[in-house]
Design goal:
Length: 205
């Protein structure tokens, strides 16, 4: 386990220095002081090592999100905690954030991709189950977890991706603005009195 984590840590350092596409397995092995056999025994090459590091990154991020979200009692607080937690973790772990955004753009083989998606669903289950309380109660839209993820975290992902790539975005603005925008995008809208929600707006001649 110690060698496993040392190789992942070395891979992260190399990926940050050279980029995911610019890093080879030998550079990681040398940075970790590991033998060639240990790398292939533990990870079966660079794709397996990259996938293992990506999985570890998701584990850490999703554990942080769950800790923030599951203690909330209202839909508004849950949504804002989700976005705040995402921003907090990514901005607090910029190396892992940069790696995550680079690695998620890679194409893994079908079996590895399926396994990763299954593991992500398992790790996100506490958050999904908690948000489902509000979906069932009508205070969040009856959307799939993927649809909620796109709407609630899409702007946060894009802002973090751009910030980590050097865009002049203010982290203070991100923290103050994006959680509120996420809630505004899904909060229930009051119906106008005497008008069906499906009725078209009245136009004066």
């Amino acid at each position: 386990m110690k060698r496993h984590e040392a190789l992942l840590d070395a891979a992260l350092r190399c990926f940050v220095e050279r980029g995911v596409l610019g890093t080879g397995i030998e550079e990681i092995r040398k940075a970790a002081g590991a033998s060639p056999s240990s790398v292939y025994n533990l990870f079966d090459g660079l794709p397996g090592l990259t996938l293992a590091l990506l999985t570890r990154t998701f584990e850490r991020l999703f554990a942080h999100l769950a800790a923030r979200v599951v203690r909330t009692e209202e839909a508004e607080d849950a949504v804002e905690a989700l976005v705040e937690g995402h921003l907090e973790w990514i901005l607090g772990h910029p190396d892992e954030g940069r790696f995550m955004y680079q690695a998620t753009a890679l194409e893994f083989d079908a079996g590895a991709q399926e396994a990763l998606q299954a593991r992500k669903a398992e790790m996100l289950a506490p958050v999904v189950l908690h948000l489902h309380r509000f979906v069932s109660g009508g205070t969040l839209p009856a959307w799939t977890p993927l649809e909620l993820d796109v709407v609630l975290l899409g702007p946060s992902h894009e802002a973090c991706r751009r910030f980590l790539a050097g865009a002049p975005l203010d982290p203070g603005w991100m923290r103050a603005t994006l959680p509120r925008i996420a809630w505004q995008s899904v909060q229930p809208r009051p119906r106008a009195r005497g008008r069906s929600s499906s009725a078209p707006p009245r136009r004066d001649p």
